Amino acid sequence: MNARASTPPLRIRDATLSGRVSAGLSDLVQYRHLVWYMAMTSLAVDSRGTKLGRSWWIIEPIALMGVYTLFVRVLIHRGGPDFPLVVLAAILAFEFFARSVARSMSMVKTVQTSMLNVSFPRSVIPLGVTLSETIRFFISIGVYLLIAAPFGFLPTTGVFLALPFIFFEILFTLGAAYFFAATGVFFRDLSLITAYLFWLAFHLAPGMYTLHMVPPSWRKVFYMNPLTTYFEGLRAALMHGRWPAHIPYTLAGCVFGCSVLLCVAGYVYFLHREGSFNKVVL
Amino acid sequence: MTEVAIAAHGLGVRYDLRQTKGRSLRRSLAAAVGARSKQSIEQGHFWALRDVDFSVGVGEILGVIGKNGAGKSTLLEIIADIISPDEGSIQVSGRRPTLLTIGAGFERELTGRENIRLNAAYLGFSRKQIDGLVEPIEEFSELGQFLDQPLKTYSTGMRARLGFSIAVHTDPEILLLDEVLSVGDADFQEKSRRRIIDMMGRARAIVVVSHTGGFIEETCSKVLWLEKGRVREFGDPGEVTAAYKKATVQLVPAAPPVGQQAAVAPIR
């Protein structure tokens, strides 16, 4: 037998938290190709077999925008100026968040056969899903800018102000995806609960209206919902090319900081729980 | 002194039955529940492995035998780093221990060719390495034009053939075999057998789980006999398999005398 010399011991597990995080990050680097492949697979599977294929990525948010516009503007005669664009910006930011978390939870179940047979870092699952949703998010933003043009909102360099909001929303979403995916393995009802919880969060943020329409005394309540900052930030940058009028820099700094903390905490929590995934029914 | 490739000390794997409900419970424990003491189950947990000690040197082949539910597959899963032990420790010296199983990581909507890439990515191969693997796997699987069809159109046999073809091209240093020699027709089985023997020649250490006593006796350097999650015997292949056969034969009830067979009442 041809023994290969000087091969290091494989994954001697370091039980300390720092050891786990260090090994986990090293695994993510080694398995970066799997992250990318999972993202591509997720995008491919998503639209395969449907008549309209990837067009659904564009149709879905526009259809939601149409439903809200019909309901709010036509039936109850509410909503401010340029309501379709106001609601669409929030829908894009919300769909990215909600889909990433929900699909991370379901993906842990989808790849159960692999998890039971192959040793790979489970933390690639939420990362791969969030990456695929990020790609969809950017495509949707491109479509948004095309739709905004006929309304008189031509893109300016101010559009790039959306980037910090997008970047920190990705971290916020990834943290939530790690947390919910790990918890969902042990608490099945979570996937059903989150569907309602997230829609509640959408309606408790300025999704169907702007923060400008909220009475100043109530704005502090809305500020507690991170989605408020992300909805307003994306909307102001994409529509007007400026920083959102009612989001102070200090608030944005706090939300961005909390998003980073959630990302780190969610990842560490996921690493802490992943060793028990295969002992639980998926 | 022989360099150690795999060393286990006081290994134990415990399943918490309050969490392990549903499919995983059925998969992992259904066979075992009938074979083991009900006392620990009533206490809310179940030891799939307990106090397991053994070592495998570089260049050695370890055979693992035992009845269904003895803990053989759990042991392979620990070596492959799929599950973590709750007690004791295991040290594996070698790159990428790979458990050869059939059809892990398949995605129904993807084509056979896409599934080859996905599976190789699960195993940690880089894009360049995957590019080099695709063609040999395609050839070995003999699936031809079906490789461009979605996996959902494959028969069970075709899926098994594709899974096996991927598994035998991963070239691991620590090779873990769990009853994988019964895929496909006779020709494919013979080709598979030759391929595994070739892999054995290049691996750093091998662990084989098999119910085929002959294969274990002929090829292994050591044999580990597991019973109810504990080591019953460990050592020379001839001695351990002989003791195992003897114990197994004693458990099988003797056939009734010819004259008494007619006494069995027909099913109405």
Write the layout of secondary structure elements.
The complex is a heterodimer of chains A (282) and B (268).
Chain A: H1 17-30, H2 32-47, H3 55-75, H4 83-110, H5 112-117, H6 124-148, H7 162-186, H8 190-203, H9 216-223, H10 226-240, H11 249-274
Chain B: E1 4-16, H1 23-33, H2 38-42, E2 45-57, E3 61-65, H3 72-79, E4 87-92, E5 98-100, H4 112-122, H5 127-141, H6 156-167, E6 174-178, H7 186-202, E7 205-209, H8 213-219, E8 222-227, E9 230-235, H9 237-251
Parallel strand pairs in B: 3-7, 3-8, 5-6, 6-7
Antiparallel strand pairs in B: 1-2, 1-4, 8-9
Description:
The complex is a heterodimer of chains A (282) and B (268). With 282 residues, chain A is mainly alpha-helical. Chain A contains 11 helices and no strands. In chain A, helix 3 packs across helix 4 and helix 7 packs parallel to helix 11. Chain A is globular, with a radius of gyration of 21 Å. The N terminus of chain A is likely disordered. With 268 residues, chain B is an alpha/beta fold. Chain B contains 9 helices and 9 strands. Chain B has a 6-stranded mixed beta sheet, with helices on both faces. The termini of chain B are far apart. The C terminus of chain B is likely disordered. At the A-B interface, helix 2 and helix 5 of A face helix 1, helix 4 and helix 7 of B.
